[in-house]
Amino acid sequence: MTFNSINFALFLPIFLILFYSTYKQERLRDIILLIGSYIFYMFWYWQYAALIALSTIVDFHIGKRLDSEKQQNRLALLITSLTVNLGILATFKYYNFFYESSQLALGLFGIFIPDLYHQLLLPVGISFYTFQTLSYTIDIYRKKISHEPSFTKFAVFVSFFPQLVAGPIVRAKDFLPQINSPITINSKDWELGFQMIFLGLFKKIIIADLLAYLAVDAVFDNPSTFSSFDLLMGIYAYSFQIYCDFSGYSDIAIGIALLLGLKLPINFNRPYLAQSPSDFWKRWHISLSGWLRDYLYISLGGNKGSRFFTYRNLMITMLLGGLWHGAAFNFLLWGAFHGLILILTRNAIIEQSFNLKMIGKIIINFHLIAFSWLLFRVSDINTFNEYIGGLSELSLTSSLSPLFYLVLSTAIIAHVIPRNFIERITTKDFIALPTLFKSSVYAGLLLLFVGASIGTPTFIYFQF
Amino acid sequence: MNAIKLFYAYIFTIAALIICAELLLEYRHYNLGYTTPILGTKAPQEKEYSSPQLSPKFGPTEAFPFKSRIILPKKTTQLRLWIASSSHAVGGRTPAKDIFPNLICKAISTTGNCETINGSGPGMLINENIQLLRKYAKTYQPDYAILYQMSLEISNQQKLLTSSRVPPPKNHAIINTDYLTKWLQQTSLYTHLSDYIGGNIKLSGLLKEELPPSMATDFENRIISFINTCRELNITPILTNFSVSHDLSNLANMHYSERTNFVKYNSYLSPTGWVKTLDQYNSLLLDIAKKHEIELIDSRTVMNGKPEYFSDFIHFNKRGHAALAQIISSHINATLETEHTQDDI
To answer: Domain map of chain B by residue range?
Structure first.
C-alpha cells in the first residue's frame, strides 16, 4: 500500500493502537512491528513477501556464522550473501533488460527468442531492502558490528514498513540498537513525526503530483508541441516533482518511525541549494550516496591512488548508482553525466558565507542537476533529441496554467526558506497551539489531500 | 500530555471533525433526494413505482428490464419504438412518466397503438445498446430503433487515451479493500472535495482541443455497427443528433460548478474541445445517415446550446424531456405519413 492511499489511512491508526498497547513488552512489540510490516508489504503483491523473507533468513544465518568463522570461510560467506541478494535483485530488476537486449542482439543474426521477459514484475522496494541487508553482512565482515542474535529483531530491521519500499536505506548499526532497548516515545518527537507525515503528504500530493499533472507528463510525452519556455519549465517542474515525491516519501517514513519512537536518518537536505555536484550528493538521497561511498567507492580504493584512479572509481560508482535505478540506457547516461560533473568539479570550493558567488554557484549547479533529470526522465533518445531541439528554438510563449506557476513557485520558495525559520514555527510555535486547533488544521489538510488527489499516482521511487 | 494521549486526542478530534462535515453535507444531499452512504435515500425509487399513477405499469422489473411502461411480447400490429441511449433516457431522479421515451407515444398519431421500450441504462455505450437489442429484439419486435448516444462515447474514448498514461494497478493484495474505497468515494465529502478541488486542478491541466482522428473513425464504426444490427433484426434504425446545454457561443457563461463537474467525466478534452468534438461527431452522424440512407432526427436546432432544457451539461430536465419527445414524435409522425402515402400510391 502507498502512504497516499485510503488503505494506509486506515492501516496506520489501527497499527498504532496495537503498537501503543504493546510497545512496553519488547517481544510482543517486535512481533507487532514484524507482522505490521509484512501486512503493509503484502497489500501490494503478497507473493513477493517471500523474497524479503528469503533475504532475511539467508542474511540472518550468514551474519551469525560470519561472527564465528575463520577469515577464509568468512569471505565465502560474504560472497554467498552477495550472490543471493544480488542474484535476486538481478533476476527481478535486470532480467527484462538483458532479455530484451539479447533478443535485439540475437535478432540481428536471425535468432529468435520468444517474448517471456514481461512475465517478471519488479518487486517494490527490492533495491532498498537488498542494499540494507547487504550492508549488514558487509559490516559484520568488516567487523564494524556484530551479528543480531534475535531473528525477530533482524527481520524487523529488514522489513520495517515505513522505509521498506523507498528508503531511507537504514544501516544495522543505526537501527538495531534502537530496537534492542526499550522504546520511549516523547510527545515532542511524536508531534514532529505527525508534522513530518503531513509535510511529506503535502510534498507528494500538492507539489509533486500536481507538477506532474499540470506540466511534466504532457511536456515529456510530447515535447515538440511546446515552446522552449514551457520545455524549460518542464525540466524545472520535473526537478521539483522528483525531489518532492522522493523526499516526501522519506519525510513520511521518518515521521511514522518517530510515532513509533524510532529514528531514521535524514535522506534529503535541500539538495538544490548545493554549490557543486559533490555537495549535491551530500544532500540528495543521502542514505544511498552514503551506501555507495562506503560499500562501493571505498571498496574500489576511493581516492587513495592516482588522480586517474580516483576518477575511475568515481565514474564506476556513479554508473552503478545510475544502474541501481533500473536497467535502462537513460539511467546509465544519468550516472555517467553525474560521474563526469563530479570529476570536472572535484576541486570546487564551497562558499561558507552568503554572497553573490554562492548564489551563482547554486544556480549553475542547479541547472547541471536539472539537465541530468532530463536524461533521467526521457523515455528514449528520440524524445531527448526532440526536447533539446525544442529548447534551442528559444520560443517564449507559455501554455501552462497559473496554477502550475503557483505550485512551482511554492516548491521553490519552500526550498529556499531559511531552516531556522521553519524549525521555529514547527517545533515551537505550532506545537504550542491548542490540540483542537492543530487537529482542525490537520483535518483541513487531509481534506485538501483527498480533494487534490487526482488519480492514484504512486511514488516515483517505488519502481526502483 | 504524553505521546499516547496525544495520539488518541488527535485521532478522535480529526475523525470527529471529518464525520461531522460528512454528516452535514449528507444531510443536505439527502434532502435534495440523492443517495447517501450513511443517511440512505430520502425517496427510494421503489416508492416512485409503487405510487398509484405509475406502478405497476412502469419497469424496470425482473421480467421487464426497461424503464418504460410494461408491455407484453408483441401480438398485434402495434408500432413499437426502441430507445437506445444511456442516462439521458433514464432521467435519474425524474419520474418515469416524465422521461422522453415514455412521452413519445403520447404525441404519435397512432396513439393507443404505440409503445416504447426504453433499452437505455446509465453508463451504457453503443455496443451495450447493441447487445441489449440483440437479446430482446426478437421478444419485443420493435419497428424502429432510435439511437441517442454521444457524450458517453466521447468520455470513454478519453478514458482510453488517458489510461495508457497511468495503467490501473493490478490487485495482488492479500486483502481486497476495493469495496471500502468505493464506499468512501460515495461519501458527500469525497464527492464535494473531488468535484471542487480536483475539478479545478483538472481544468488547469493541459487539456486538449480535439481527439485524435482515429477516435472519429471508431465512433463511426460503432454507429455503423448499430445500423447493421438493426437491419439484421428487421428493425428500422433512426439516428438522433446530440444536444447539450452550451455551445461555443455561450460556453463562457457555463456555471463554474458545471465546469468542474465536466472534467469529472472528461479527462482529455477541454470544455471547448469537447463542444468542438460534439460538433464534429454530429456532422459525422449526418454523413453516415446520408450514406446509409437512414433517417436523422434533428434535436440540435431546437435544443442545442439552450440551458433551459438541461439539468446539467448533457442531461435533460422535465422541459428537455418533453421537448425531445415532441421532436422525435413529430419525426415519427412524418415518417409514418410518408409510409402511408407510399402505401396508398
So the answer is: 1-42, 43-164+178-344
Percent of chain A residues past pLDDT 90, beyond the cut: 63
- Separation CA A356–CA B222 (nearest Å): 65
Q: To 5 degrees, how large is the angle CA B312–CA B318–CA B322?
A: 120
**What is the chain A residue with the closest CA to B13?**
A439
H/E run at residue B115: strand B114-118
Instruction: State whether A446 and B205 contact (CB < 8 Å).
Output: no
pLDDT (tens digit per residue) in A277-326: 999 999 999 999 999 999 999 989 888 888 889 999 999 999 999 988 87
Nearest CA in chain A to B175: A43
B43-164+178-344, what's its fold? Rossmann fold (3.40.50)
Cα gap A415→A273, rounded to integer Å: 8
Which three cell numbers mark A437? 486547533
A419 against A237, higher pLDDT:
A237
Nearest Cα neighbor of A124 from A246, A284, A249, A2 is A2
Residues in B closer than 8 angstroms to A435, CB to CB, are 1, 6, 9-10, 13
Instruction: Please judge whether B193 and A443 are an interchain contact, meaning their C-beta atoms are less than 8 angstroms apart.
Output: no
Note the helical H segments in A378-434: 381-391, 402-416, 419-424
Structure confidence by residue, pLDDT tens digits, B8-40: 999 999 999 999 999 999 998 888 777 788 888
**Partner residue opposite A46 with nearest CB, options B173, B190, B194:** B173
Give the integer Cα–Cα distance in Å for A280 and A17.
40
Going by the DSSP 8-state scheme, the letter that residue A426 receives in this structure is I
pLDDT over 60 (residue A369): yes
Taking a C-beta distance cutoff of 8 angstroms, is the pair A54, A88 a contact? yes
Residue count (chain A): 464
- B138-156, pLDDT tens digit by residue? 999 999 999 999 999 999 9
Q: Does an H or E element contain A2, and which?
A: none
Q: How far apart are CA A15 and CA A7, in angstroms?
A: 12
Query: Side by side, which strands form the sheet with B295-297?
Result: B114-118, B79-84, B144-147, B236-240, B295-297
Nearest-by-CA chain A residue for B7: A190
B265 touches chain A (CB under 8 A): no
Helices (H), chain B: 3-31, 45-50, 100-103, 126-140, 151-163, 178-185, 188-193, 199-203, 213-232, 256-265, 271-292, 300-303, 318-344
Separation in Å, CA A348 to CA A279, A345, A358: 9, 5, 12
Nearest to A132 by CA among A162, A159, A152, A94: A159
Which residue out of A52, A439, A441, A442 would a mutagenesis test of the B interface target, given it has the greatest number of B Cβ atoms within 10 Å?
A439
Handedness of CA B172, B174, B175, B177 (dihedral sign): negative
pLDDT, tens only, B239-278: 999 999 999 999 988 887 788 888 888 888 999 999 999 9
- Nearest CB to B193 within list A210, A215, A447: A447
Residue B75 in contact with partner chain A when CB distance is under 8 A: no
Report whether pLDDT(A392) > 80. Answer: yes
Q: Which of A217, A221, A401 sits opposite B204 (nearest CB)?
A: A401
Determine contact, residues B93/B32, Cβ cutoff 8 Å: no
